[in-house]
Design brief:
The strands form four sheets. Strands 1, 2, 3, 4, 5, 6, 7, 8 and 9 form a nine-stranded mixed sheet that branches. The chain has a five-stranded parallel sheet with strand order 12-10-13-14-17, with helices on one face. By secondary structure, it is α/β, with parallel strands linked by helices. The longest helix has 18 residues.
Length: 400
């Protein structure tokens, strides 16, 4: 049975007079005589459903089709309780509202963490679409989440509008659908547990590099951002932490570093940026043309996803561990370990444990912060090596 491509192809339905924001919609009607269909990848614990429904208890209902023997989670977390699925008869008397188009059920991994939203929701959804050869329709897709927030701006890199990210409650409220009416979907993707960032989806799922490159190209196309031609004037971007951060580590002398870089590389453009509050398109446009990105680990570093792979990231290590006041350790964070070691970006690690340890602030044995005053000459030297390599490869033009 082919997929429904327009609301008019459904049996027993009355088409809505106005096309709502979230794809085509049919008013409540008895279940159609079309079975659900399902395709699953058991190794990656993900499925593509067609003509499938969800009731008010968030049970997945398969119409005249047995539920697949597979555990599927609603978010990129293997410890999440699997979605309950069951089969219902076509003549069960249940009533439904049908939404056309492609839908992805991908709930929040972490509240207001922009890095995890990108890796564990947006990119994980993209990889599911790629697996089922639906990435060509990604911009027009809809995503079902469980909570809203500013983090959803990250979906602007995947969808034509972040308004296409909704909760089940919103769908019911916006279309006045009562709790005794099931929500049915033309195409529904579910099961992004293996695709997420936090649980090592880059290794779990094949073709990470290809998916990563294709995602960057898709995002730039959606937002009308272009790469700069080579050779070009070098651009150096220094990331400054925003006011809200999960890790209280900061570089306190970035302004002085920027002054030194402008002096050493007079024909380079040097930016100090804070991603907090900056529109997503502006972030992607800046990173797409950045040649050297200077940052601490954390969500700030996730924006390297938009950098050209010819570029270099200079990563200043941060303190980690459970006993930072007595025995601190430093590392380059999870972003490189989970993602960027598998891309072709050049990476300059900067870990000086003896120096950085002296900058950790504790009170009564409790860690407060690590405020790093980095060596300006060393910062300039690392950038110079990166730009020199790019100049030799014909990527930048510079008089230094």
């Amino acid at each position: 049975m082919p997929l429904f491509t327009t609301p008019a192809t459904l049996h027993h339905g009355l088409q809505h007079e106005e096309r709502p924001r979230h794809g085509g919609l049919l008013l409540p009607h008895p279940y159609s005589h079309s079975h659900s269909t399902v395709q699953c990848n058991h190794d990656l614990r993900t499925c593509k459903f067609s003509n499938v429904c969800v009731d008010s208890e968030l049970t997945l209902l398969l119409l005249g089709e047995a539920a697949p023997d597979i555990n599927l989670t609603r978010r990129a977390d293997p410890h999440e309780t699997p979605v309950h699925m069951k089969s219902v008869g076509l003549e069960s008397g249940r009533v439904s509202t049908f939404f056309t188009g492609m839908w992805v059920w991908a709930e929040a991994y972490a509240d207001n963490n922009f890095g995890h939203t990108l890796g564990d929701e947006v990119f994980a959804s993209w990889r599911m679409m790629r697996l089922w050869s639906l990435d060509h329709a990604a911009a027009g897709a809809n995503v079902i989440t469980d909570r809203k927030g500013k983090r959803l701006m990250q979906y602007g890199s995947l969808l034509s509008s972040v308004q296409n990210v909704v909760t089940f409650a919103e769908l019911r409220n916006q279309h006045a659908i009562s709790s005794d009416v099931d929500l049915c979907f033309e195409t529904l993707l579910l099961g992004n547990e293996m695709f997420g960032y936090a649980y090592n989806g880059a290794v779990n799922v094949p073709n990470f590099k290809e998916d990563f490159t294709a995602f960057r190209e898709h995002s730039m196309a959606v937002l009308n951002v272009r790469d700069v031609p080579n050779p070009h004037r070098p651009i150096i971007t220094l990331a400054q932490k925003g006011n809200k951060t999960d890790h209280p580590h900061r570089i306190v002398n970035l302004d002085a570093v920027a002054v030194a870089l402008r002096s050493r590389f007079p024909d380079a453009k040097v930016n100090i940026v804070c991603w907090e509050g900056m529109p997503l398109r502006k972030q992607i446009a800046l990173m797409a043309k950045t040649d050297v990105f200077f940052s601490l680990p954390g969500s700030d570093l996730m924006n390297v996803a938009w950098m050209n792979t010819n570029s270099t990231m200079v990563v200043v290590c941060r303190a980690e561990g459970s006993n930072l006041c007595e025995k601190p350790s430093f590392n380059q964070g999870n972003e490189i370990r989970l993602w960027f070691r598998l891309t072709e970006h050049r990476i300059s690690y900067w870990c000086e444990e003896e120096l950085f340890s002296k900058m950790i602030k504790c009170e009564n044995g409790h860690f407060i912060s690590s405020l790093l005053s980095i060596d300006i000459n060393e910062a300039v030297s690392r950038v110079e090596r990166a730009l020199g390599d790019m100049k030799q490869r014909g990527i930048i033009k510079s008089s230094f």
